[in-house]
Write a structure and sequence with these properties.
Blueprint: H1 33-44, H2 55-69, H3 77-81, H4 83-86, H5 92-107, H6 109-129, E1 141-151, E2 158-168, E3 174-183, H7 188-197, H8 200-212, E4 224-233, E5 240-244, H9 251-269
Parallel strand pairs: 3-4
Antiparallel strand pairs: 1-2, 2-3, 4-5
Helix pairs in contact: 1-9, 2-5, 8-9
């Protein structure tokens, strides 16, 4: 079995085909947006995220992302053997709900376009990686669960982000991030409000800056960055809500102030600042 590799150790030729490499994202010694969420809860004495989401809700959200973004990991032998995974299996009712959400996303032309591109990109990279195919003219790349390592320029703190889906245009002039959220919102206005309630502005800024300041300079020539939050209504009729976060005045800027504030707090709590 291959031993885990750090992304910093990957050869340039292998960077695109991440699914074939046993990289443990959680073990990477960098700060994630989730780390900042936990720090905020500790510092403010707030109750953990369970205040808004029960264990079953989190399990359902995790299952949704797994089926949508990591379908190759569903129903594997490892999943069936590990007790902690077995305990998180969905109930029959939850499975029916999950199927409904998946169908809703897959029927949407916008979502379907980028998810299919991600499937084609992964297949092409696998063939290139294994020497079964030759390099084809680049038509843009769409990647699921893309891990990006970056360094925040204001604090010099090494950070990491795992993006649901990122599309980069053929000449790398444009980049689009899609982030999928299961939601209890029943209207567009309610979903937009939840984007503020759950600190999605901080997440959006953190993820956008992961591309801007990527350690490998992969998006150094990119001129336009766009971030779309897609809410999938958990209750029937399982509607979709789309919020172009980069088009909301002040949304990203305020989120950036938030994450940099908590990055400084992280350094203070870690003894990295005087």
């Amino acid at each position: 079995m291959l031993s885990p590799l750090s992304f910093d150790q990957l050869p340039q030729a292998a960077l695109s085909f991440r699914r074939a490499l046993p990289v443990d994202y959680r073990s990477l010694p960098r700060v994630s947006n989730s780390d900042l969420t936990r720090l905020k809860e500790e510092q403010l004495g707030a109750m953990p995220s369970a205040r808004w989401a029960t264990d079953r809700t989190r399990t359902f959200g995790k299952a949704f992302h797994q089926h949508l973004l990591e379908p190759e990991s569903v129903a594997t032998v490892m999943e069936q053997l590990l007790p902690d995974l077995a305990n998180e299996r969905l109930t029959a009712t939850e499975q029916v709900k999950l199927d409904g959400l998946m169908k809703t996303v897959q029927r949407d032309s916008f979502c379907r376009r980028y998810l299919r591109q991600a499937d084609r990109w992964a297949s092409q990279q696998e063939r290139l990686f294994t020497g079964l195919d030759e390099i084809q003219p680049q038509t843009g790349q769409s990647e699921r669960e893309r891990v990006v390592l970056f360094t925040d320029p204001t604090t010099q703190q090494p950070c990491k982000a795992r993006l649901d889906l990122v599309y980069t245009s053929p000449k790398r002039q444009n980049a689009l991030i899609l982030d999928f959220k299961t939601t209890s919102a029943r209207t567009q206005a309610q979903f937009l409000q939840s984007c503020y309630d759950y600190d999605y502005d901080r997440q959006v800024a953190f993820y956008l800056d992961s591309l801007r300041y990527a350690d490998n300079n992969e998006w150094a020539d990119t001129k336009r960055f766009r971030f779309v939050l897609i809410g999938v209504m958990k209750q029937r009729p399982h509607r979709l809500f789309a919020v172009d976060a980069t088009s909301i005045p002040g949304f990203v800027d305020y989120g950036r102030k938030k994450y940099r504030f908590w990055l400084r707090k992280w350094q203070e709590s870690s003894g990295l600042m005087d």
